[in-house]
Design a protein that fits this description.
Elements lengths: L8 H17 L19 H24 L1 H32 L5 H4 L12 H9 L10 H21 L1 H17 L17 H19 L8 H24 L9 H7 L7 H17 L10 H11 L1 H18 L7 H24 L16
Helix pairs in contact: 1-2, 1-12, 1-13, 2-3, 2-6, 2-8, 3-6, 3-13, 6-7, 6-8, 7-8, 9-11, 12-14, 13-14
């Protein structure tokens, strides 16, 4: 395996863009959320985020596996899991403190948008459930997913070092077993388990890991006109299936997808449609955006790349800011000026936080996935 080249700004750029989209999507009453990626196909910002996490993991830890051995990698990944776990708990505590400070009668219940209600729950019970990752309020459930994905990551990396197909086959097997036997992790939010079901989402992470390994091995990506056309067709088909339901409503005559969603739950779970839609987007991005594109160094791109580089800190802050925004934008009746103001102010705060973190004298690794250097 060759030495890793300098940091690939495309990873940080699209991870930063995904963070901005996630911030918007976490404000349900914000009309701007109707303009984000999830409304135009099966792929959401979370899909891109998880795929990039897999790429970053390979870029960071595959070289360390070669030079330092398995023990060192397991130790480093364990520390990373601990960091993300503490960040998740800190964000939950910060949100709870915020709700108590503004005088919410039932702060534990604010997170819930569906039963079971936490209005009658005790703080000690909520704390126990939170510490065991069973209490995952809506919009506070991505970090627990990433924690579990990191447990999958080292075995996947070992399999991929034997042959990349073994890693994808093992990941596909886990996905199939999860679908057939409805395997999931326990959650107080739903009897069905975690909203971001790790048994399903790990296949996206595995795909990213394999892409990252191909990059480290200097394997040139197949630049095929037919693959490009096929990717565009997949994206178009997903758009036609999803957009009418999002735009006109699930009961509209324009919505051709809704009967399927009742049977398979395609919009909520990681399915072949979502997987193909995400893969099509990633192929076009890698195919048509060269890693040395000059525009990646312009001021706007640098704002996003800094956010992507410090993704754990930016995501955690964005989660709290989105909660503030949900309180401020008390409903869909909020005007466009208020909604745009919340978006601009919140994004500016995230960008400033990333800038201050980047200006600190420290190593070049980000908080979330260290060493994301190339693709």
């Amino acid at each position: 395996m060759g030495t890793s080249p300098k940091r690939d700004l495309r990873i940080d750029l699209f991870r930063g863009l995904a963070l901005v989209i996630i911030y918007i999507d976490h404000i349900p009453s914000d009309r701007l959320s109707h303009l984000t990626l999830r409304n135009f196909g099966f792929t959401s910002a979370a899909d891109i985020f998880v795929l990039l996490a897999g790429i970053s993991f390979a870029l960071a830890y595959a070289p360390r596996l070669d030079t330092r051995g398995l023990g060192a990698v397991v130790s480093q990944v364990g520390r990373r899991i601990g960091t993300i776990y503490l960040a998740h708990i800190a964000v939950l505590l910060g949100a709870l403190a915020m709700l108590i400070a503004i005088g919410r009668d039932s702060p534990l219940d604010l997170f819930a948008v569906a039963p079971p209600s936490w209005a009658g729950s005790t703080y000690s019970h909520a704390a126990t459930m939170a510490l065991t990752l069973q209490y995952q309020p809506p919009y506070f459930d991505i970090l627990p997913l990433y924690i579990v994905l990191l447990f999958f990551a080292v075995p996947l990396l070992l399999l991929a070092r034997v042959h990349w197909a073994l890693a994808l086959m093992a990941s596909a097997l886990v996905w199939v077993l999860g679908e057939v036997y409805t395997l999931n992790f326990p959650s107080t939010r739903s009897a069905a388990g975690w909203y971001f079901d790790p048994m399903s989402w790990q296949i996206v992470f595995a795909l990213g890991l394999v892409i990252g390994l191909f990059s480290l091995d200097r394997t040139p990506m197949k630049r095929s006109t037919w693959l490009s056309v096929l990717s565009v067709l997949v994206i178009a088909a997903c758009f036609l299936l999803v957009f009418p339901c999002r735009h006109y409503g699930p009961l509209s005559a324009h919505c051709y997808f809704e009967p399927l969603s009742h049977i398979t739950g395609l919009l909520d779970r990681q399915t072949p449609w979502r997987f193909l839609n995400t893969l099509a987007w990633m192929y076009l991005i890698l195919r048509f955006i060269p890693r040395d594109a000059r525009w990646l160094a312009n001021p706007l791109a640098r704002i996003l790349t800094r956010m992507g580089k410090h993704s754990l800190a930016v995501f955690s802050l964005g989660t709290l800011l989105s909660l503030v925004a949900r309180i401020f934008l008390s409903g869909p009746q909020a005007g466009w000026v208020a909604q745009i103001g919340v978006f601009v102010l919140g994004t500016a705060v995230l960008a400033l936080a990333a800038y201050l973190l980047d200006a600190r004298p420290r190593n070049t690794t980000g908080w979330f996935e260290p060493g994301a250097k190339s693709v």
